[in-house]
Design a protein that fits this description.
The complex is a heterodimer. Chain A is an alpha+beta fold. Chain A has 19 helices and 33 strands. Chain A has a seven-stranded mixed β-sheet with strand order 3-5-1-14-11-12-13, with helices on both faces. A five-stranded mixed β-sheet of chain A has the order 9-18-17-16-10, with helices on both faces. In chain A, 61% of the residues are buried. Classes of the chains: A alpha+beta, B alpha+beta. Chains A and B meet through helix 1 and helix 17 of A and helix 2, helix 3, helix 4 and helix 5 of B.
Chain lengths: 789, 155
Amino acid sequence: MDAGVIGKDVHRVEGLDKVTGRVEFVDNIELPGMLHGMMLRSNVPHGRIVHIDTSRARQLPGVHAVLTGDDLLAMPIDPFTGPAFKDQAPLAIGKVRYVGDPLAAVAAVDRDTAEAALDLIDVEIEELPAVFDVNAAMEPGAPLICERLVPARTFADLIELLGGDDVPATSNACFQYKLRRGNVEEGLRQSDRVFAHTFSNPPSQHADLEYHCSIAQWGATDRLQVWSATQSPSYVRIMLANMFHLPESRVRVVVSYLGGGFGSKLYTKLEPLAAILARSTGRPVKVRLTRKEEFFTITKHGLTAHLTTGVSRDGRILARDSQIRWDTGAYADIGPRVTHKSGYTSAGPYDIPNVRIDSFSVFTNKPPAGAFRGFGIMQVCWAYESQMDIIAKEMGWDPVEFRLNNVLREGDTQATGSIVHSLGLAESIQAVADAIGWEKTAPIPYQAVQPANGPLRKARGKGIACSMKAVITPSISAATVLMHSDGSVSVLSSAVEMGQGSDTLLSQIAAEELGVRMDDISITHPDTDVTPYDLITAGSRTTFHMGNAVRLAAADVRSQLWPTAAEMLNADAVDLTASNGRVWARSAPDRSLTFGQLIMSRFGARAGTITGHGLFETHHGETDMQTGQSDNVTAHWMCGATSAEVEVDVETGHVHILNLVTAVDVGKAINPFACRQQISGASLQGTGPALYEEMVFDAGQLTNPSFVDYKIPSLLDLPDNMEPLIVEDPHPDGPHGAKGIGEAGIFAIAPAIANAVADAVGARIPDLPITPEKVLNAIEEAERHGNRR
Amino acid sequence: MTAHVRFRVNGESHEVDVPEQRLLIDTIRYEVGLTGTKLGCGVGVCGACTVLLDGKMVSTCIMLTAHAEGADILTIEGLAKDGELAPIQKGFLKYGGFQCGICTPGQILAAHALLEYNPHPTEDEIKDWMMGNLCRCTGYYKIIESIEKTAAGEV
């Protein structure tokens, strides 16, 4: 294709609808006769449901249905869903497992009535011993939270989950990822120095500003239609078909735009309950959460990681042992995949000959944890990149040089045994180091900011961190491209536009492949009746996978039209090319046709549709479950690096970010403007969990479920300077060389900031977030040990 | 108890009978039918539900409909005039001050109010004014740039 739209700063195709407030979100949809569903939630963390009396609620005028878990059991449905294990019903069955677990649901004419009805439900629960900490949960004799594990078997990458069909659980660990490479004991013995540290981060929130919201409506012939704010329409359809014993063809899931997702809107969330309430009442039902309920629905995993690392005097990492425990809360959700996928790189993006990783997904009596931007990489990166700096400091090495000495490069063998290709990590590290003015001296001198008179109040420091991730493999994306009789084009894709810019990117790819204008392309949003299967819109998948599927589908359209074009232009098909909506032969550029003329000629009238199909699949190699070794764990690697400069107020402990630079290897920037938007957005989002975001629990009760008490970054929290950098190490299988980009910008934010804080004041905070209180305590601690800089 | 409330939205007169406790956001979205105004936090701290009421920014998620009696309300739908975007909308569009679009109506109305009050704000003035409008996608830089460029007439 000739000079087109790839690599250009193309504006968002849906921009006009967004700046005028016209863009459609699910909660905008109101259907005739629609009821509103709301839930009553448990106020105890663990307990047996003795009795739920709904009789008073049922009598309230305007109430159409009141359901409990027992009612679900009496229905001809399979009430259990879950992407890893079928362990969660829309309403608790038998027992509640966390404060916030839905116990009963009401469908009523409006939300006021539904809320009033919830107050009339009487609940009797016999409390059970509860456990909130992953280590306590793994002790023998800990209260068992989930008694049976039934693998869901809906995702190929999770097919190897524990055991057989239905395993009685013996522990709260629902999944273990194991990796063995070389001999860790031997490697540690041969090391000149061995370092052992424990790091942790707490559960936190996605805080996408749009609430979860689903609407369900049943048709006369047992057809279910659902409108939902979901990142995984194809999966939702499969789950609803399973639940109601319907063919998938009778379940239609429609997604408009999402007001952010970041992993919170994956798998089934409110769709099953909306569908059940709609079926029970014979009316359309909308279920929408409140902000408080968002905190009870899905969280980012807390993690505890104990790392033991051996290094040689010449700056090489010889061995690393990573013992990791993930707090997956009361239901597994996608916890096992988070454990599994982040497991590959839990020892860091380094070439280490001896690696042992044991990573456990552990139930606790807390809200379920699921996917969050990065699928666990943020959390493991927090641990290994914090330790990298501790080691560098102890050994007197420059942190940048230490990383560059060990980082994985083209052709290296990663800990899983898979070969590394197209990983621009060393380049990314160098780029962020250069951008922040990193000096090749160790330790780096900090700049004391001293008031004209008075004692030292503020100290400055710099820090760096980096990370890598394997894209989810195997996976499937399919797309359909329709060219209409006037030459305009519809791209039918189940990729969800949630703010990341996928509509624009897929339009660019289709326009480029066909040689039409951007304005000729329309994106048809997910509608499982017409848009083909896509695994999920998550995990930085869309550019690489759906981009390829759309490219293939567009190429299919072109190949169907080229014989007609060759005939009309009296040219050889291989000589044909197109751009700006016109087709011509390279050897005779002065004669061209529009696509409309081509179709007119093909069908003999202004009629007909050319339908192109694109299917893109990735595959992985066999994995040895005892060692985690495989010749191919992933279709591609993604990576990013961050450098930070901070100013620490040594009297208040407040950390202010002066400079935050993040580089991401995007393979090829199909839309550089959109790439920088993704990197900037991820960077600032990463500062929240680094400095203050934390779900605070007291005996299982969440104490801060609102934006008043749970703070996310505002305009006043911006770094003085923030810079997104694009690194391009093209991937041969990516569309135009592109790789995923949505997550890598957030991976290394927290450790880069922590490393800068340590550089500034000698204080190391091992447990996120880096609150002023922890900084002050760490400064005191450092002073006691004479480490204060 | 029902409240009878009269107000104008984007220049159009409305009279509604709503329960006394009905929040203004629900009236705007579901009685008036203008869904550009978004619910974000429900406690008045995120700014997604911002409208201009007699020219002043208010959080409609914590304001009773009854308190809007006699008010002149501007929502995102009323900002463009005769099919022509307001300068601040052009600014957000051109400089990419949005991603998912859920906070965007509130951001744009707050920025519009800022520029009415202070046509040439400094970066710090923009941050102070806009701090009550949260965004989880953009990292805010493009929002600041959109406002600065609009103020400079570069839209």
